[in-house]
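Let's practice the habit of predicting before peeking. Look at the sequence and jot down your guess about where helices and strands might fall. Then scroll down.
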Amino acid sequence: MTENDILAAGRNPMSQSVELAREYRFNDADGRRPDWGAIDMDFSMHPPFLLELMRTGAEIQLEWLAAVSKRTKRFLKQLPNARVRKGTS
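Done guessing? Here is the structure:
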């Protein structure tokens, strides 16, 4: 599936692969359709230091995504409205 196919179907090009796999019923090469967000994970066998590293990494990623989102919103506010100039299309 190409980005053009996704756009033509009215989909967001940022759709997660698991969402598309569910909708179009396709699987990984091994036949599975993993969805880490839907899995009830058991972290009891992981050492505490690893869990702390994972938590710290996820928190850093969330902070970074929030900063990128804030800058992007500020940028979009500065963009003029789209207008078609005479002689262009």
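How did you do? The chain has three helices and no strands.
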